[in-house]
Amino acid sequence: MTTTIGSILTVSSYFLRSICFLHISHSYIYEFTETRGESMLPTLAVQNDYVHVVKKYKNGRGCKLGDCIVAVKPTDPNHRVCKRITGMPGDYILVDPSDSIYREKSDSDEPFNTYIKVPNGHVWVTGDNLAHSLDSRTYNSIPMGLIKGKIVAANDFNQPFWNGSLSNILGFRKIQNTFIDEES
After folding, report:
1. Which of 68, 85, 98 shows the shortest CA–CA distance to 136?
2. 32-174 maps to which CATH number?
3. What is the pLDDT of residues 39-49, one digit of tens each?
4. 116-131 burial code (b ≥16 CB/10 A, e <16)
5. Domain ranges of the chain
6. Distance between CA atoms of 93 and 114, rounded to whole angstroms?
7. What is the model's pTM?
8. Catalytic residues
């Protein structure tokens, strides 16, 4: 009887430790999560695309212009967004002239001349598919504290399991920073 209770306690202890380890890993080290929506086409698929998120970039630490990130949506803290950083603190960003908010205000070319300076501690994010993206053009720059991590790779489960290459198992691909520094 005591051996059975001891075995149950040992198994329970290992189970609890495993859950704690998974929680800590998911919160502070690495996350593998599904994305949905067309705002990041062609970088990410509309559905069945899973991203690899490295959490060492949490709160914007080490993030650069052009990085793809996962962040808490500023207008709904229960949702996350995948976007590309297109403006860093201190950058001047041209307001999107196609936005209906600016079109209703004036029929002039004013939106083409309206700039916003990204405040310290904030970033400007946009989707790669600008026509179908709710991003900083809608909710303004986001605090770096909302950044949960940087997307380094993705798996597209719409692809076949094996595509003839070891680097393309399960539609695996690295997510590249599309901004190139001309001075380097």
Report:
1. 85
2. 2.10.109.10
3. 999 999 898 88
4. bebeeebbbbbbbbee
5. 32-174
6. 8
7. 0.82
8. 39, 83
